[in-house]
Write a structure and sequence with these properties.
Layout (H helix, E strand, L loop, with lengths): L9 H13 L6 H9 L8 E3 H10 L6 H11 L8 E3 H12 L1
Antiparallel strand pairs: 1-2
Helix pairs in contact: 2-5
């Protein structure tokens, strides 16, 4: 290891890993914003609708395609001419529905 860099031993790392793995915390609004910012090509809090669809159907608690389409139809703003949609209104509506 490099001088001054901390390296976890297995005995130190395993309890942290287990805690994260066993956690039922699925994140909140700000966590979802950070994820969608990864797909924000224009830096304007928009993403392409197909990217959101892929996220909903392929990651975490995967939604069936029909359910994802229905959710997006209910909660998303319309796409612009280039297929981009603002993701903050979607997240606001989605997180409000869960409370």
């Amino acid at each position: 290891t490099e001088k001054g860099k901390k390296v976890f031993t297995e005995a130190e790392a395993f309890p942290m890993y287990k805690s994260c793995k066993d956690s039922k915390d699925v994140g909140g609004f700000h966590d979802f914003v950070e994820v969608l910012k990864l797909y924000d090509k224009n830096g304007d809090n928009t993403c392409q609708s197909f990217e959101l669809f892929k996220l909903l159907t392929n990651f975490g608690e995967k939604l069936p395609k029909e359910e994802a389409k229905k959710l997006m139809a209910e909660l998303c703003e319309p796409e612009d001419a280039d297929g981009f949609m603002p993701f903050l209104p979607f997240l606001t509506r989605m997180c409000a529905a869960e409370t």
